Amino acid sequence: MAEPKVKYDRQLRIWGDQGQAALEKSNICLLNCGPTGSETLKNLVLGGIGSITVVDGSKVEVGDLGNNFLVDEASLGEPKAKIVCSFLQELNDAVKAKYIEEYPDKLIETNPSFFSQFTLVVATQLVESSMVKLDKICREANVILIFARSYGLAGFVRISLKEHTVIESKPEHFLDDLRLNNPWPELKRFAEGFELNVHDPVAHKHIPYVVILVKMADEWAKSHGGRLPSTREEKKEFKELLKAGMVAPDEDNYKEAMESSFKVFAPRGISSELQLILNDSSVEVDSSSSDFWVLVAALKSLSAIPNQATQVTLKRCSVLGVGVLRVQLNEIWT
């Protein structure tokens, strides 16, 4: 058996160790293993989910051979759940697989508590009455539910869940928190120690690009009613001002300032999206609150006392995992 790091190398590059760990801890139930359900579960099994339970009461028929690649002629007349489960197990022997030979509609009616054991239920080709009942069951048990139905080349997918929070989002890129749109006092004093119009060409090309951006942003704000560049035209104009400040074509500091000018354009203050999270009623946590809301509650309470120790604590929180908030933690003190 290949080591997980090697076996799942490509997907680890996409969602990281925490995303893979979440997959490996998942327990997924599939209702009806026709072509839609089998294809869905096949992709999840290859991804390395923890365990699967296939529920289907039908037998493999001739018609299944033309639309489901997880059955073959030798399986005609056999329980479809058993055959599909066996093929899926062959795709990834690290996944625990079992099947239940029963019609999902009947299981929904007679044993609703059965579904509470799963992380996710994927229900395919169900009639509307069964979908309504299953939705109520899964919501009460706080189990994620996905409905899927296909009609030839058409179909639909619906997701039903009370709430979905992300603790580790693994963003594609990180915005360095240089606070260029609202520099802290020490950075302001540092920038004031430099003169952009210095006549010494050596000294001019050694002005830190952060200082260039801070001073140019300050000059822009003074002539634009305290506003920073916001429109496309204004951002272009700001970059032209940076370019005009160059006295020689080999000044890498000014080139870097132009490349990083977008860091000045970030809006000041707490974004509306973050404010909605901080004002959500779920921030009033109790013993049943998820880790996400406990961390948000801590963030909200700490944001009321913006001192150095608080900032260090929040940065530690971000390292521990509030991925959705991590990029915006600096907004609290702007």
TrEMBL record:
One of its GO terms (molecular function) is ubiquitin-like modifier activating enzyme activity. Residues 8-164 form the THIF-type NAD/FAD binding fold domain. SUPFAM superfamilies: Activating enzymes of the ubiquitin-like proteins. It comes from the Eukaryota. Pfam families: ThiF. Gene3D superfamilies: NAD(P)-binding Rossmann-like Domain. Signal peptide: none annotated. InterPro entries: ThiF/MoeB/HesA, ThiF_NAD_FAD-bd, Ubiquitin-activating_enz. This is NEDD8-activating enzyme E1 regulatory subunit-like protein. The gene is 11444042.
